From TrEMBL:
One Pfam family this sequence matches: ABC_tran
The UniProt record lists the keyword Transport: yes
Ranges of biased composition (kind: Polar residues): 1-10
Residues annotated as domain ABC transporter: 4-240
GO MF annotation list: ATP binding
Name of the protein: ABC-2 type transport system ATP-binding protein
Region (Disordered): 1-21
PROSITE patterns reported for this sequence: ABC_TRANSPORTER_1, ABC_TRANSPORTER_2
Lineage, highest ranks first: Bacteria, Pseudomonadati, Pseudomonadota, Betaproteobacteria, Burkholderiales
Alphabetical keyword list: ATP-binding, Cell membrane, Membrane, Nucleotide-binding, Transport
């Protein structure tokens, strides 16, 4: 039984522009099974539909069509069971400013009917570096600390399936490391993890499998290692202050003075360098590196072909 199953899920929102009654298709027949024990990454640019998928999974939004289950429980017809099996860390920071951290976690435990879990709450506080904030009011905490409380809150009922929606957006390096250590450990002990993130190096390091979402459709779905293998194997990187010849500029990723060109083989690299020389472009700091997940991502997102729709 999959931990999470999306079966041909579509979601139409009322269109903010356009004529009365028109809709906007945020998800278009998304099918995806995540197996128990996976550390799964859901990637995609802003507006791709990641949060919509998670909202449907958490029962906060209804799918327009299709079906979603959590360990066999349907998120609509079996809402309470499905919800109990899930720990969701939302993208937006929402909390009640009047309670302290420990009270928040007690209330959340009560919501799931969990009693006598003080030992687990202490473990959560410790693992997330919150022990000395246990009695602090939510409104006194920094953004990063609030984020930690949200994570603790999601895990207070020991859910077997953990969902994190951009948990590290705008948080410092220290919290990212604390968080990943903690979540990776839960995954080792058997929890299934579904993660959305903008930090592709995090996804590359943590996720065994990855789906890439673009305008509501899955455009890539594979083991992380296979996604990396299938990509252009190398990237030629150099710095220049000059304008590139058009055919190179069209293929390059340019960030300020840094130019990066995906290459499939040594010949392609030679051709790039020859073209640069011929155009009289001065280059510095030339290097060739292996393609990483960001290269794969940009490749996939620039390409309109779809798989597994
Ligand atoms: N409540 C809503 N009403 C109308 N449109 C929405 C709503 N929520 C999200 N959308 C739209 O659906 C698309 C997907 O949004 P979202 O799921 O938040 O994407 P992501 O999390 O990948 O950035 C976006 O175009 C967004 O503007
Ligand atoms: Mg989102």
């Amino acid at each position: 039984m999959p931990a999470i199953s999306f079966q041909s899920v579509s979601k139409a929102y009322p269109s903010p522009r356009g004529p009365q009654g028109s809709t906007f298709q945020a998800l278009d027949h998304v099918s995806l099974d995540i197996e128990e024990g996976e550390f799964f990454g859901l990637l995609g640019p802003n507006g791709a539909g990641k949060t919509t998928m998670i909202s449907i999974l958490a029962g906060l939004t209804r799918a327009s069509s299709g079906r979603v289950t959590v360990l066999g429980s349907d998120v609509q017809t079996d809402y309470a069971d499905a919800r109990r099996k899930l720990g969701v860390v939302p993208q937006e920071l929402v909390f009640d400013p009047f309670f302290n951290v420990r009270e928040m976690l007690r209330i959340q435990s009560g919501y799931f009917g969990v009693k006598n879990n003080d030992a687990w709450v202490d473990e959560l506080l410790g693992g997330l570096g919150l022990t000395d904030k246990a009695n602090a009011n939510m409104r006194q905490l920094s953004g990063g600390m609030k984020r930690r409380v949200l994570v603790a809150q999601a895990l207070v009922h020991k859910p077997p399936v953990i969902v994190l929606d951009e948990p590290t957006a705008g948080v410092d390096v220290e919290l990212r490391q604390t968080l990943w250590q903690f979540v990776a450990n839960l995954n080792k002990q058997g929890s299934t993890v579904l993660l959305t993130t903008h930090y592709l190096e995090e996804a590359e390091a943590l996720c065994g499998r990855i789906a890439m979402l673009k305008t509501g459709r899955i455009v890539a779905l594979d083991k992380t290692s296979d996604l990396l293998k299938a990509a252009s194997s190398n990237v030629l990187r150099f710095k220049t202050g000059d304008a590139l010849p058009i055919e190179l500029a069209a293929r390059a990723r340019i960030t300020g003075r840094i130019v990066q060109l995906p290459a499939h083989n040594a010949l392609e690299i030679e051709q790039y360098l020859a073209a640069v020389r011929q155009a009289g472009v001065t280059v510095e700091d030339v290097e060739i590196r292996k393609a990483d997940l960001e290269d794969v991502f940009l490749d996939v997102m620039g390409n309109t072909e779809e798989v597994g729709a």
